[in-house]
Amino acid sequence: IIIDKGKKDGIKKDMGVICENGIVGKIANVSENFSSIISMLHTYSVVSARFTNNQHIANVCWETKDYRFGTVKDISLHLNPQKGDTLVTSGFSNIYPEDIMIGTIEEMIESNSKDFNTAKIRFSTNFSTLRHVYIIENLHQAEIDSLITNPNEQ
User: Fold this and answer.
1) Residues 65, 46: contact at Cβ < 8 Å?
2) Which of 35, 39, 69, 101 is most buried, most CB within 10 Å of its CB?
3) Nearest to 125 by CA among 51, 17, 16, 22
């Protein structure tokens, strides 16, 4: 996805991108006047998610090849998510704040290996009609980065 905002507008690589219905992706590259977005519909996109009904954490990615659906991974075996359960961003990344809508459970998929379950999620964002997006700036990004790059200096 290419948008008509770039460096001159304050856009930087790795900023989060959302729309009125939920997450879209993150900024991949920036020129003076434009930016490219890696959407959730990319095989390398993974978002830390939280179930709203029980606060448990899982990861959401796109493996379905259908723009409407994604995959929820790493669901603990003792959890029993139901169709319609909601997932939002966990806030554990420096890209998205917590509680941004991701989608709802469409179908549970039990694990054959008995380690973690997965589920099919219906994205809250309709990528086929996407027109307007919002860019999220983490005002604490420099401080967070300093903890990561220099963990013993704080």
Assistant:
1) no
2) 35
3) 22
